[in-house]
Amino acid sequence: EICHGKACFRGTRIMVWQILELLEAGVAVEEILSEKYFPQLTQDHIRAALHLAAEQLKHREFVAFPPD
User: Over the range 42-66, which residues count as b (16 or more CB within 10 Å of their CB) and which as e?
Assistant: First the structure.
């Protein structure tokens, strides 16, 4: 689903980027799924967020530039 032009989980207004940022920050999956963050989500939502990120990057090319 889409919320304000951003991917979100069906039936919620929770955007996928929010979950990815929490994971990047080192927040444990169990904590993300707890009352502290998003108790309405499941492990399947976390996997779906990671899958979406992987699919987005799979089709992109990156160019490394030498450091200044």
Answer: eeebbebbeeebeeeeeeeeeeeee
Helices 43-58 and 16-24 meet at what angle, rounded to 10? 90
Q: Long-range contacts: 31-34, Cβ < 8 Å, 24+?
A: none
Two tokens, residue 67: 């450091």
pLDDT at 2 over 70: no
Q: Which two tokens stand for residue 10?
A: 């069906």
Q: What is the pLDDT of residues 5-62, one digit of tens each?
A: 888 999 898 999 999 999 999 999 999 999 999 999 999 999 999 999 999 888 888 7
How far from 46 is each of 4, 61, 67, CA to CA, in Å? 20, 25, 35
